Amino acid sequence: MTAIRFLVNGAPVELEAPGMRRLLDVLREDLGLTGTKEGCGEGECGACSVILDGDVVDSCLIPACQVDGRIIRTVEGLAALTPDGRILDDLQAAFLATGGAQCGICTPGMLLAARVYLDAGGGPDEDAIREAIAGNLCRCTGYTKIVEAIALAAETGRRPAGA
Predict the structure, then answer these.
(1) CA-based nearest residue to 24, from 75, 64, 69, 78
(2) What pairs with residue 22 in β-bridges?
(3) Extended beta strands in 2-143, E state
(4) Per-residue pLDDT reduced to its tens digit, 5-21
(5) pTM for this structure?
(6) Domains located in the chain, CATH noted
(7) For 108-129, what is each residue's pLDDT tens digit?
(8) Which residues are within 8 A (CB) of 25 and not within 5 positions of it... i.e. 6 or more apart?
(9) DSSP string spanning 114-135?
(10) Distance CA 159, CA 83 (A)
(11) For residues 103 and 42, is the Cβ–Cβ distance under 8 A?
């Protein structure tokens, strides 16, 4: 067992875990952050994507020992928490408005890949959006509504408070 300390969605976490335990399992089973999904378990589908120190990574491929001292953002960290409840990130609102989510397995990973793209200054260009989400597979759609949602969020140009 290894002591691991890191930030998840802005909150400090300290836990004991086998160093080679997958970050995906730590998030879902130890921390109850079930928005991160397991798809393939091989780093091919992007369903388990999280943002690690500003980069999108497949949490099924990251050993827990490699996140010590680092910053992780999961899909649960997109919405802003207010005294009245949660306010959706503009990207989440755009997915809702365009019907960008189908079954929900790929949605968290798509949202996080898109958030990194938008935070880097990405715009509504379809080809650039498709490239930004290329590591995330969706088995339900032809990606049209997902791309529309990301373009809509890029056009609004707003970022949630605290992001």
Answers:
(1) 64
(2) 63
(3) 2-8, 11-17, 49-52, 55-58, 71-73, 80-82, 85-87
(4) 999 999 999 999 998 99
(5) 0.92
(6) 2-76 (3.10.20.30), 80-156 (1.10.150.120)
(7) 999 999 999 999 999 999 999 9
(8) none
(9) HHHHHHTT--S-HHHHHHHTTT
(10) 19
(11) no
